[in-house]
Amino acid sequence: MQTLRCLLKRSLCLVSLLLCPMLLAQSPRQLHDLVYATIDGKVLKLDLYLPATDTAPLVIYVHGGVWRNGDKTAGRNFATALAKEGFAVASLDFRQTTDAPFPANIHDIKAGIRFLRANAGQYGYNAGRIGITGESSGAHLALLAGVTNGDGELEGKVGDNLATSSDVQAIVSYFAATDLTTILAQSTPFGLSVREPGLTLLLGALPDKKPELARLASPVFHVDGKDPPLYLLHGDRDPQMPVNQSLQMLGAYKAAGLDVTFDPVHGAAHGGPLFFAPEHQQAVVIFLRRTLQSP
């Protein structure tokens, strides 16, 4: 009888070891259109992608679109891939600049972070340490959220979880704007054709007409010694977002003695599959595992 029990126990252990990677590889459970706040009559929603464990760390995805286009569905492929690596992922909608100028978008994103942290037990993930990521203008907003932990001016009063922290503990930036006071001078003619209308909607005028607001909206000016680890990716052939924007953020982080990695994506323009080639995708996964594990 004792021998039979031992054999059964060993068999169960073996089955568990075999099933663990299989569970992680399964398609994630998806919850769509969860309402996280309502502001000025606009309902703000998010989608959740959940792996097969309720202890997965959470990563928040912020979509791009020159601050005026796009929606949370842009994060579907990214979120599905990351969920298969064992992360919970939330993709947010927020007010576009066609709805309200800055800082409305960052107020919404911080409200989303508070909602996700406050409701972690209900949906099944670990919100003790949260990562945030985005592409292009979404990366700008993700960076800004990440380097302004506890900043009352950008916290806002959106949503019902105002006593909950909106802090994040890791940032992954895909070809972000980081300094709105220099971006136009660094831009190509094609880049100017995209950035000037986008910045005018974001700030209410071009940056030189609203220098204080442009600085407030620029992540590079918020960097201090308390900011979370940062992983920067930028294509070396980006015709729209100057690579110098990521290099400025790299320099600010290094000057503050912070944890930062710059991953240049050779041959990449503004987005595209090269950013998600195995060498870059796995480097991001390793970074998130390192920074979001319990300290």
Question: Number of helical runs?
Answer: 11
Helix content: 40-55%
How would you classify the helix and strand content by structural class? alpha/beta
By CATH, the superfamily comes out as: Alpha/Beta hydrolase fold, catalytic domain
- Largest sheet composition: 8 strands, mixed
What does the overall shape look like?
A: globular
Query: Which CATH-level-2 architecture?
Result: 3-Layer(aba) Sandwich
How many strands?
Answer: 8
Rounded to the nearest angstrom, the radius of gyration is 20 Å
In percent, how much strand structure appears in the residues?
15-25%
* Overall pLDDT metric: 92
Strand order of the largest sheet: 1-2-4-3-5-6-7-8
Fold topology:
Elements (H helix, E strand, L loop, with lengths): L1 H24 L3 E11 L2 E9 L6 E6 L13 H9 L3 E5 L11 H15 L1 H4 L2 E10 L1 H10 L5 H4 L14 E5 L8 H4 L2 H15 L7 H6 L13 E6 L7 H13 L4 E6 L12 H15 L3
Parallel strand pairs: 3-4, 3-5, 5-6, 6-7, 7-8
Antiparallel strand pairs: 1-2, 2-4
Characterise the protein shown here:
Mean pLDDT is 92; it is low at 1-24. Helix 2 links the parallel strand 3 (57-62) and strand 4. The chain has eleven helices and eight strands. The chain has a single domain, classed as Alpha/Beta hydrolase fold, catalytic domain (Rossmann fold, 3-Layer(aba) Sandwich), CATH 3.40.50.1820. Strands 1-2-4-3-5-6-7-8 form an eight-stranded mixed β-sheet, with helices on both faces. With 295 residues, the chain is an alpha/beta fold. The longest helix is centred in the N-terminal third of the chain and has 24 residues, at 2-25.
